């Protein structure tokens, strides 16, 4: 079965939605009762988005999307643990999602905590450990250490996804899955696409 959505079209639509959101012209599409009813029996999301749990980073709002449009996986620091990876595999393998967007953001509290060497003895330890490689890789860079690490973390997630999941790798090899990194600026509302 071919995916109902094409990756290039989906990405263009998401970024068009983000431009509306930035300008304060969000349309809030596909959120009425008719839409709810039409997708109640079956979902066909056009993209999966991995985002931080941060209350300021809700993907449906940032990309001006509606009900049933996005399959969203959210954990603090937009980390991708085993269950998050399984969720992505479900979106790709069962729902034929053609795009995964991995979205980091500015002033991320989880990344900030990891930069400061947060308390790994709590349940946050796993999150901090997941962020550690990006922090170590950017520690010598000039500029904002949290922004640098957040961007690096996204790049590493994108680069490492295929090796972690044969399911995702199979779709990427078949060119029916595109994985992109992105970075959201809390101040401007802009989502910037990160090059690999
Ligand atoms: Zn965050």
* Average pLDDT metric: 96
Number of domains: 1
Q: What series of H and E elements makes up the topology?
A: HHEHEHEHHHHEE
In helices, the fraction of residues equals 40-55%
Give, in spatial order, the strands making up the sheet with the most strands. 2-1-3-4-5
The assigned structural class equals alpha/beta
Strand portion: 5-15%
SS field, number of helical segments: 8
Bound molecules: zinc ion
Describe the secondary-structure layout:
Blueprint: H1 7-22, H2 33-38, E1 47-51, H3 59-62, E2 70-74, H4 82-93, E3 99-105, H5 109-115, H6 125-138, H7 145-164, H8 166-173, E4 178-184, E5 191-194
Parallel strand pairs: 1-2, 1-3, 3-4
Antiparallel strand pairs: 4-5
Helix pairs in contact: 5-6, 6-7, 7-8
The structure holds zinc ion.
How would you describe this structure to a colleague?
The protein has a single domain (7-108, 158-194), classed as Carbonic anhydrase (Beta-carbonic Anhydrase, Chain A), CATH 3.40.1050.10. The protein is globular, with a radius of gyration of 17 Å. The mean pLDDT is 96. It has helices at 7-22, 33-38, 59-62, 82-93, 109-115, 125-138, 145-164, 166-173; strands at residues 47-51, 70-74, 99-105, 178-184, 191-194. Strand 4 (178-184) and strand 5 form a beta hairpin. The longest helix is centred in the C-terminal third of the chain and has 20 residues, at 145-164. With 196 residues, it is α/β, with parallel strands linked by helices. It is built from eight helices and five strands, in the order ααβαβαβααααββ. The chain has a five-stranded mixed beta sheet, sandwiched between helices. Helix 5 crosses helix 6. 44% of the residues lie in helices and 14% in strands.
């Amino acid at each position: 079965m071919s995916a109902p959505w094409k990756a290039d079209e989906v990405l263009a639509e998401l970024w068009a939605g983000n431009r509306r959101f930035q300008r304060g012209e969000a349309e809030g599409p596909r959120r009425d009762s008719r839409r709810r009813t039409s997708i109640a029996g079956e979902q066909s999301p056009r993209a999966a988005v991995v985002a931080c749990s941060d209350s300021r980073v809700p993907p449906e709002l940032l990309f001006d999307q509606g009900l049933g449009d996005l399959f969203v996986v959210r954990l603090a620091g937009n980390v991708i643990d085993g269950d998050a990876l399984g969720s992505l595999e479900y979106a790709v393998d069962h729902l034929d999602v053609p795009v995964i967007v991995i979205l980091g953001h500015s002033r991320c509290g989880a990344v900030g905590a990891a930069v400061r060497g947060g308390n790994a003895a709590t349940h946050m330890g796993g999150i901090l450990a997941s962020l550690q490689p990006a922090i170590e890789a950017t520690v010598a860079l000039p500029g904002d250490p949290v922004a640098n690490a957040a961007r690096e973390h996204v790049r590493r997630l994108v680069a490492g996804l295929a090796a972690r999941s044969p399911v995702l790798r199979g779709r990427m090899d078949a060119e029916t899955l595109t994985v992109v990194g992105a970075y959201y600026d809390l101040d401007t509302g802009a989502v910037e696409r990160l090059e690999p």
